[in-house]
Amino acid sequence: MKVGILAGGVGSRLAEETVVRPKPMIEIGGRPILWHIMMHYSTYGFKEFVVALGYKGECIKRYMADYCSLAPDLRVSLKTGRVERRGNGEHGPEDWVVDLIDTGQKTNTGGRIKRLSSHLGDGTFMLTWGDGVSNVNLADLLKFHRRHGRIATVTAVRPPARFGRLELDGERVARFDEKPLSGEAWINGAFFVLEPRVFDYIEGDDTLFEREPLEGLARDGQLMAYQHDGFWQCMDTMRDKVRLEGLWASGDAPWKIWN
Question: How many domains does the chain have?
Answer without folding.
Answer: 1
